[in-house]
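Worked example 2:
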Amino acid sequence: MSAPALHSVSVRTARPADEEALGELDRSTWSTLHAVVPRPRPPYDPFFDERHRPDDFLVAEVATPSAVGPGGTCIAGYIRLVPPTPLACNAHVRQIQGLAVATWARGAGVGRTLLRAACAEARRQGANRITLRVLGHNTPARALYASEGFAVEGVLSGEFFLQGRYADDVLMGRSLTP
C-alpha cells in the first residue's frame, strides 16, 4: 500500500477546542506497539488536564477535500513536547512524551513533520537538547527517530511487562545545536 498524498500539512499549537478530536485520535491509534497503559475504555478521561495542557501539544492539520467545504482542515496527528522535569538544572532539555498519527495519514510524512516541528519549538523555547523514550519493539518509531538524528543513549532492559512479555524502554536523544 502506498502512502497517501497529503498536501499542505501544517503544524500549530493545540487549542482547547481540539480536545474531542485529539482524544478520539489518541484512542483510535492505541496499540501494543507503543502503549504501556491499557486500552482506553469509556468513560474516557479528558485529553487535556493540569499535566497535559493544550500548549504542550503540536497538532498536524491537513486540508480537507473540497467536497467537505472550503478552508476546512482535519487533525492528522499530534506530538507532546514538555520539560522532562521541573528542575532549573534540566531547563535546557525538552522531552517528547507522545506522538500519534492518524491511520489514514501514516506514511505521508506527518510524523516526520511533527518531529521536526517539535525540535524547532524546543529550540524556540531555549532548549539545546531533546529526548524521548520508545519501546524497544517499536521498530517504525525508532527508525524515524534515528533518521532525524536521535541516538540511543540507554536501554532499560525489561522495564515493562506488557501482554505477558518484557519490553525494553529505549532512551533516545539528540542535540539541538548546529
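The mean pLDDT is 93. The radius of gyration is 17 Å.
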